[in-house]
Amino acid sequence: MRMENKQSESYRDFFLGKFSNFEQLFEQAQFGIAIIDRDLRYIYLNNRMGIIDGIAVGEHLGKTVRELDPLVASAIEPVLLRTMTESVPFVEHEVVVHKALPDDSSERRFWLVCCHPLIAEDGTVTRCGLTVQDVTEQKIKERVQAERLKVEALLSELSTTFINVPVSEVDSKIEQGLRKVVEFLGFDRSTIWHLSPDDDSLTITHSYSVPGIKQPPAVIVGLIPVWVSMVRKGEIFRVSDIEELPDTFWREKQYARDHGGIKSIMFIPASVGGPVVGSITFVSYRGKREWSDGLIQRLRFLWEIFANAVERKRTDQKIQDALAEIKRLKDRLEAENIYLRDQISVEHKHDEIIGKSEGIKKALVQLEQVAVTDSTVLILGETGTGKELIAKAIHNLSPRRARAMVKVNCAALPGSLIEAELFGHEKGAYTGATSSQIGRFEAADGSTIFLDEVAELPLELQSKLLRVLQEGQFERLGSPKPVAVDVRIVAATNRNLVQAVSEGRFREDLYYRLNVFPISVPPLRERREDIPLLVWSMVEEFGKVFGKAIERIPKKNMELMERYYWPGNVRELRNLVERAMILSAGATLTVEVPAAAPSAAVALPMTIEDLERRHINAVLEKTGWRIRGANGAAQILGLKPTTLNSRMKKLGIRRGGEQATN
Question: pTM (2 decimals)?
């Protein structure tokens, strides 16, 4: 700025040779004073000026500013030249001077410069007076103070952010906080590590790196033992130059070299509620970083904010996991109770498999052999032969008998719901799924699941069943998360699975996985010697229910039952005995055996489907094609009306080309 004329004259008089009387005053000044001629040569300077620019006073005189120090010249020459040529004074003009250091590097110094033209009597500027005050330390203090205030403002902002942050937002808020800290303080990366309580491993939970800087490995196990040991003890580790570490830190030095050339690093551990839960690291790659005590104190406060938020999230997750496990066990218990009640309502009332024929003895020996293992069992036999009783016997003799066996009738479930029934579903998985529900496989975890009529499973579900057999895993409908179960599978079918495989209706790989231990249950016509035992067992059972005492069955009636073909097997026999008990009015029981006993037709080769179709047709004809109600076809056959309708549709049974009526 231009000074008033009177002030210029006083400075001119002051510097035109009259200053010698004030030389002692100049030497006592706390700022540098120099007189520069028009060639920018030093003609006078005080000792303070030599101290400021680091060059002895005697070396200045007669030399130009640039000859003496080109770096200093680059900063003050423009000010001196403008003062000389334009007679323009500069007051408290701040310049940045780069001073060379012995190691060929340089440091920045901040000078506050005043420059005044010294005007001769003819009005020309012959010299200029220069005063210099080194304000570097003051600038550093101001910058440190400003940074401290900014850091405290940042910490205050982050602290406020985490006061009421929802647990679901903790991760995103921490990552945002790390980014702010890294960018504000000029780090290259900051990472939060979780310390495993049972081993010396560190696992990343959150991290932010500036562009171009790679993330550290996700888990560190045994690579840096000293660091891990210090973190576990709650000790801070800091180093400004990784290469200056002693040889005992050779692994740490190697880690720094192998991971991008770390120059400076600091670990700050944190404890929540006593034990150390982890640490936060601050890393510099592009330059060495000094870790002052004040900075560490503030970063430690920041880490405590993050650590408490992380631990709160971890605690909440443990609670949620525990609640989910409680809900899973509750759902499974409820499902078991529901399935158990369903089974009690439909299962046979006698607990033992009755018979003395060779066929039934062989089946009993086989089930005893396989029951003690966890092997998959495939029970083969016609409808009504008692395959479910065999399955129950296997479960009751197995190590899993403490828990209820879960039964699934694959033919009775609609194709659209069978997947959800078997494997469960999440809320919203399909229309009507208003809540999450576990499936029967989850309900059978640790127990046995009985898949009756497994051949009726749709092909798309057979692959899921195969995965459960192979890996013990499946996904609920509407969820990609795998569910692991420990379930023993006992399957049953009245179909010829070999034929179904050849026709492409059943997966070959699933057949071989199910057919580990096959048990064949003989039809009633192949165990005729068991019929009297079965009949009297049923008579005793129904007698208790109906309050009737049967003392005898006519011999001819028993012989008629032994000669009958029994296409419905034991189930058909049971239904006829029950009906006879209802109709009986005395101590003698006569069972009405169907008159249409096969004769010549029996000898002809016939598939199980043909036999089933023929038997259902016969019963329907007898009931006048009435399916539901007392003495309807469904009751006689021991089937639910919906199941009978499904069977009729599958077997193509129609009355006069029309569906049977209900």
Answer: 0.44
More confident residue, 230 or 7: 230
Locate all alpha helices (DSSP H) within 547-588, ordered by sequence.
555-563, 569-583
Residue of 129, 105, 99 whose CA lies nearest to 117: 129
CATH topology of domain 598-662: Arc Repressor Mutant, subunit A (1.10.10)
Per CATH, 5-134 and 147-317 having the same topology is answered yes
CATH number listed for the domain at residues 347-519:
3.40.50.300
Contacts of 316 (CB under 8 A, 6+ apart): 167
Asked whether 492 and 391 are in contact (CB, 8 A), the reply is: yes
Which residue did the predictor score with more confidence, 28 or 95?
A: 95
CB 561 within 8 A of CB 591: yes
CATH entry, 147-317, from 3.30.450.40, 2.70.70.10, 3.40.920.10, 3.80.30.20? 3.30.450.40
DSSP string, 84-104: HHH---EEEEEEEEEEE-TTS
Name the CA radius of gyration of the chain, rounded.
Answer: 48
d(CA 357, CA 20): 139
Residue in the structure block whose two tokens are 């001629």: 37
pLDDT in tens, 532-558: 999 999 999 999 999 999 999 999 999
Dihedral sign for Cα 30, 31, 32, 37, please. negative
pLDDT tens-digit series, residues 201-225: 788 888 888 888 888 877 776 656 6
CATH topology for 5-134 is Beta-Lactamase (3.30.450)
- State the helix-helix crossing angle for 170-185 and 293-346, rounded to 10 degrees: 160
pLDDT at position 366 is: 93
CA-CA distance, 27 to 59, in Å (whole number)?
A: 17
Q: 542's torsion region: left (phi>0), alpha (psi -120 to 50) or beta? A: alpha
Calpha distance 37→128 (Å, rounded):
7
Q: Which fold has domain 523-595?
A: Helicase, Ruva Protein; domain 3 (1.10.8)
CA dist 106 and 71 (Å) reads: 10
Q: What 3-state class would DSSP assign to 429?
A: coil
Residue type, 506: F
Q: Buried b / exposed e across 60-81, counting CB within 10 Å, b at 16+?
A: beeeebeebbeebbebbeebbe
Give the list of residues 6+ apart from residue 637 with CB closer than 8 angstroms, or none.
Answer: 568, 571, 572, 575, 615, 616, 619, 644
Specify the amino acid at residue 560: L
Domain-wise residue ranges, the chain: 5-134, 147-317, 347-519, 523-595, 598-662
Cα angle 322, 327, 331; round to 5 = 150
Question: 251-277, pLDDT tens digit by residue?
Answer: 878 888 887 788 888 888 877 666 777
More confident residue, 340 or 181: 181
